[in-house]
Each structure stands twice: as C-alpha cells, then as structure tokens.
Amino acid sequence: METTFPEAFPSALRSQSAIAVSALKLSSDYVSDQFSVNVLGEILRIPCRVLPSTRPEFVGVNVQQRQIALCMLTRSADGFARQAALREVLHINEPWSIPFVIALIGEYVVEIIDDVYAALPDLEKANPAFYKLTCDRVVSYWDLYYRRQFPRSDYVGFKLLRQLDAYA
C-alpha cells in the first residue's frame, strides 16, 4: 500500500514532516497498512509499521522535525526502536503526537504498554473510533499472548484502558 509518510501529520506540519521523514530514510516499500485518526478535524493516515533503512541521526533537523521523526519511529518494525522513540514522544503531548502513543496501547509489547501506563497522567484521550479499535486490540493481544501470564484484571493494557476511561 502506498502512502505519503507526511500525511501522518496535520497539513500545517507537512513541510516539516517531509524533512523529518526524509532524515529517517524510511523505506516506502515496507508500509504494510495504515490507520486513520481525526486530529483537530483533520484526517491523518499513520502507517502501521515503517522500516528505517539506517539508524536515525537527527543532524540538521530542528526540534519539531525531531519530534515528528520520533513519532514515526514509534511505528518502527523494531520493538526496541518503538520503545526508545515512545519514551521521548511521551513528553511532546501535542494533539498530533497523541495518536502515536495511543496506538501503542493496542500492540503486543507489554514493556511499551508499561511505559505508556507510567506516563498516563500526561496523556489525553481522543478519537472514539480509534480508541475502540485500540481497546479491541488490547483484548486480542492479551488473549493471544498474555492470557496465561496475566489475569485480565492485572494486564497493564486493561489497567491503562480503565485509567483512560476514568479520565474521560
């Protein structure tokens, strides 16, 4: 599926995101799928996974471009790269960065979900359809990977969803 990576960000950031994505040297051939979110009335198309062709270096990019690049790295095929990027993205707290964080709640790497849970007081919830999809993914990954390891009430994904619901 072909996508223009800068479409993962609001139109006001498209020129900045094009520079940031270019600095990452992402392979456009690797995008397996994308999901859509509504950010301040604008539909963004965020890739489910990306594959940086090299270890990213943020030489020659400004702070906002670096933040955009880190958001894209939360979609990396490498779980360690996703977690490292997330730890910095958690401090951005811009409307356009939040979907990148929320998407990680519905994934299978429990250590990443733990990081989101620890940062919860700083996050906001938006996009009801996207949130429902994320909830469905939490259930699915818990059932597939963690059902034997954690009772539903102890699984960090469900704890996080309960907290988000309490903040709403």
Automatic annotation (TrEMBL):
Protein name: Uncharacterized protein
